[in-house]
Design goal:
heterodimer, A: about 500 residues, alpha+beta, seven-stranded antiparallel β-sheet, five-stranded antiparallel β-sheet, 18 helices, about 35% helix, about 20% strand, globular, B: about 400 residues, four-stranded antiparallel β-sheet, 15 helices
Chain lengths: ~500, ~400
């Protein structure tokens, strides 16, 4: 992975930069010791590591603003970091950049039940938001599987999803407002407790921008009252195609389940051996369908889903009869990553999205690739929204296996794009998928995205080397290629 | 007479924009022009009429995604969806009656460009939340795309969000993809009679804070309720507060029952069933109380935190007269006032200053919209950033210049 060449001039000024940061953030908020920097050398994409120039952990918006203004004026790059759980390397440090950690922004500031929102600092964990309001029966809907550790600021950076987003939406659909700091130190508020602020939807483009546009210092999220009850049903099939067809049949019957997940046989076996969720071992595909709402609704829909599944050839069906059993059904799925980690020394977790009807084809081609690369793959799938998580198993200690696994992963993502899908559903591009962006986008597509970057951060100081394979200078991006008076009147209907 | 350029396809849109850039001739970009009264008047040498870029190109109900040309009439979209028992869950308003045009004249691209939504906004989101991807020609005269035709996507910046609500000022969309959802099996509305604004919004907040997935929460003061076309509402002789629940039959029964109990302490309770319920929410969605005989009034759409709604509504009427009604559980205030040369803009914005929110002048004559800020003025640094975003797409100011902000 080729990262931007470190600026030796900045590295040479390290002592001066440390002093400047210590003047802004007193005490232990500036980390310069190598041993302590080691803790920040990677995020959830552990294949790539780099010690940051230094780490700064501010506590106030004013400090963030001063830090960014200093870096802007002195040509120092910034890598923002939430909890460091991201899977695409978005928080991978740079040798000549300050890693700006938001972990000390960990306060819940305001819970407003009447207006159904909570104002929190960006370092509060995803689950921390729910914990703050669940005593009163509320929760925050998006629930990425890292929710116990990942921060809400990081969720916005990656537009995180989870298993409930077909019904309840992604992060972008559940964030009402932010306070953010631009690279030049300007503090802005976007949105708030009201809906749909006028003007360009800058909050919308900030969400999922992977730390390239600004640093978030406060977040207002929508909270919801918990459904009265929830039940899950396990459905087993003889093939993944049948499982996929069953998902389509449920949706075509007008049912949008709270969650609808699929696992293939390798994933079923890995998880069952790990957590003993009670999954059937003799099916090729397993669906977990969760219905939530009032008991009468859940009972009614469980029955209908059962009928649909039977019609689609389900060979196994089991309905949760208690909260414990429902939790057990989910325990396998939610532990799929560590379960695969248990049967393989290393694994890569991919994250493409495909049109659901392409599932059969994609899984079949993936099996062929698995043979070609000689690497095993297990699949967990957010079946409702078409988001695939193939887990490629390899052993980094075997020479060449990491490279083979990465090639396999790239082939899977190219396949996703080929069938009309996208490179990432919820993990982001980061460095991991950066060099595949050309598979999905033309040069003009990418340049237009980068022009938006230029509007926020014209000198590319924020998280350079992430998301976009080529860094174009903003002056070059802004140049017009149409000259005055050079285009003849087009041959199109006119009136 | 302004010349109209009417491209037949995306290639011709590209040719037209390139030419306009080359000649420094601004374009008034429009679908059918049904929302020409929304936003500031555009001063442009040519009209770019996209009405030939119409038609559904891809729709597979099982995938919950629909792709169409930007000028596809909403009537066509709605019919195709209805045939598959699906809908646009964000319930975009039909602005036809508000502007004195017929109903059903809007387009899908227009709905997105104005980021419209309706009463179900509080549950399902706005157009921006259902807009998955697009192809477009930028004001630089370059073809680009963003997003995709899938539900879940974080591959590069989400430029769809910027397009939604940009009123054609950033790029000319040539194809759009939206998320669609199943229609609810059953719908019912619970009415609370006679509550004043404050009690009504308190009741609506309780309902929205329940687990009943309320899909509409509105309040009509008595003078507005009496103009409803729904007999139960106009005949009530008092203020009417309404919540809508949707879903499978047994569920709707259950939720209705619970919400009636929840409303009981606030006053008398009634129910609207299928036909009346649908008609009522269409009125709320389309600002029907301020159409017809009210056509001469100016209309504001004010978005605030829901609990601030009643106070804002009271202050608006105290300062400027007129009438209000509430949607989004009190968070959306429709405000109609007697026409003034400044539409009362400064007063409207003063009223919402302390609670946070924004006000949009959705109906006024062209000269008033030319003079008064139609959209909420932004603080300096935010306005500067918005201007830089505009320049990132349209550096020469070719596309709908001034539609949102003077000089941008």
């Amino acid at each position: 992975m080729l990262m931007p060449k470190p600026d030796q001039g900045v590295i040479d000024r390290r002592a001066e930069i440390i002093a400047a940061m210590r003047a802004i953030v007193p005490g232990e908020g500036v980390i310069a010791d190598d041993a302590m920097l080691r803790a920040f050398e990677c995020d959830g994409l552990m294949a790539y590591r780099q010690l940051p120039l230094i780490v700064v952990l501010p506590e106030t918006t004013a400090q963030v603003s001063e830090i960014l203004a200093y870096c802007h004026d002195n040509g120092v790059k910034i890598v923002p970091r939430g909890a460091g759980t991201g899977l695409s390397g978005g928080a991978l440090p740079l040798a000549d950049a300050i890693t700006l950690g938001l972990s000390k922004f960990n306060q819940v500031l305001d819970i407003d039940y009447a207006n159904r929102c909570a104002v929190v600092q960006p370092g509060v964990t995803n689950l921390g938001v729910t914990k703050a309001v669940e005593g009163d029966g509320f929760y925050y809907a998006p629930d990425p599987s890292s929710q116990i550790a990942c921060s809400i600021g990081g969720n916005i950076a990656e537009n995180s999803g989870g298993v409930h987003c077909l019904k309840y939406g992604l992060t972008t659909n559940n964030v009402l407002g932010v306070e953010m700091v631009l690279m030049d130190g300007t503090v802005l508020r976007l949105g708030g407790k009201h809906l749909d602020p006028g003007g360009y939807d800058l909050l919308g483009v900030l969400t999922g921008s992977e730390g390239l546009l600004g640093v978030i210092t406060e977040v207002t999220v929508r909270i919801l009252k918990k459904p009265e009850t929830a039940r899950a049903v396990l459905l087993g099939f003889n093939s993944s195609e049948e499982g996929g067809d069953c998902v389509a049949a449920i949706i075509n019957a007008g049912i949008i389940p709270g969650g609808i997940e699929m696992m293939d046989k390798p994933a079923i076996h890995a998880t069952e051996e790990f957590v003993h969720a009670g999954y059937p071992m003799d099916v090729e595909a397993l669906l977990i369908v969760e219905l939530d709402g009032p008991k009468v609704e859940v009972d009614y829909l469980i029955e209908r889903v059962g009928e649909i599944a039977t019609g689609q050839g389900a060979i196994y069906s089991r309905i949760s009869e208690s909260e414990e059993e429902r939790a057990a059904f989910w325990s396998g799925r939610k532990n799929a990553f560590p379960a695969v980690g248990r049967i393989s020394p290393d694994y890569l977790c991919m994250d493409g999205t495909i049109p659901r009807k392409m599932l059969g084809l994609v899984l079949q081609r993936m099996t062929e690739m698995s043979d070609k690369y000689g690497l095993r793959v297990a699949n967990v799938f957010h079946a409702g929204d078409g988001n695939l998580h193939p887990l490629i198993m390899f052993d980094a200690n075997q020479p060449g296996e990491l490279d083979r696994a990465e090639e396999f992963g790239a082939d899977i993502l190219k396949l996703c794009v080929e069938v009309g899908g996208v490179l990432s559903g919820e993990h982001g591009i980061g460095v991991e998928k950066r060099d595949l962006m050309g598979e999905m986008f033309t040069e003009d597509d990418l340049k237009q995205q980068q022009r938006v970057k230029c509007a926020f951060d014209p000198d590319h100081h924020l998280n350079p080397g992430k998301v976009y394979p080529t860094l174009h200078r903003c002056a070059e991006l802004g140049r017009m290629h149409i000259s005055r008076g050079q285009v003849p009147f087009p041959d199109i209907p006119r009136f | 007479m302004t010349e109209i350029l009417k491209p037949d396809n995306a290639d011709q849109v590209l040719d037209a924009v390139k030419w306009a850039v080359s000649e420094a001739t601004p374009l008034d970009v429009r679908g059918t022009g049904s929302k020409a009264g929304f936003g500031r008047p555009v001063q442009a040498g040519r009209v770019l009429d996209l009405s030939n870029l119409a038609g559904i190109t891809d729709y597979d109900p099982g995938e919950l995604v629909l792709t169409a040309g930007p000028a596809t009439p909403m009537a066509e979209i709605e019919q195709a969806l209805a045939e598959a028992n699906q809908e646009l869950a964000f319930e975009p308003m039909d602005m036809g009656a508000l502007y004195g045009n017929g109903a059903g004249t809007g387009t899908l691209g227009g709905v997105i460009a104005a980021n419209l939504s309706g009463p179900r906004r509080i549950k399902a989101g706005a157009a921006r939340d259902h807009f998955l991807g697009f192809q477009a020609v930028s004001g630089r005269g370059e073809v680009f795309k963003s997003g995709g035709k899938v539900m879940k996507n974080v591959t590069g910046f989400d430029l769809s969000k910027l397009m939604a609500g940009s009123f054609g000022t950033l790029a000319v969309m040539t194809q759009v993809s939206v998320k669609v959802l199943p229609r609810p099996e059953k719908t019912r509305t619970v009415l609370l009679m006679g509550a004043d604004d404050t009690h009504a919004v308190a009741a609506l907040c309780d309902a929205l804070g329940s687990s009943h997935e309320v899909a509409g929460a509105a309040h009509l003061p008595a003078s507005v309720a009496q103009r409803s076309g729904v007999g139960y509402v106009s005949g009530a002789g008092t203020a009417v507060t309404a919540v809508r629940v949707e879903g499978p039959g047994p569920s709707v029964e259950h939720r209705c029952h619970s919400l009636r109990d929840l409303f009981a302490p606030f006053g008398a309770v009634e129910e609207l069933h299928s036909h009346n319920s649908a008609a009522f929410w269409r009125e709320i969605r389309d600002a029907a109380p301020f159409t017809g005989d009210w056509q001469d009034h100016q209309v504001w759409r004010v978005s605030v935190p829901p609990t601030a709604g009643p106070t804002v509504g009271q202050h608006l009427r105290a300062r400027l007269g007129g009438e209000v009604y509430y949607d989004w559980g009190g968070g959306l205030i429709w405000f109609a006032l007697d026409a003034r040369s400044d539409a009362g803009a400064a007063d409207v914005r003063r009223v919402i200053k302390d609670c946070g929110g924004h006000a949009t002048l959705v109906r006024a004559s062209a000269d008033v919209r030319q003079a008064a800020p139609v959209f909420q003025p932004q603080p300096g640094p935010l306005a500067d950033l918005s201007k830089r975003v505009k320049e990132a797409f349209d550096p020469e100011g070719i596309l709908n210049p001034g539609r949102m902000t003077a000089g941008v």
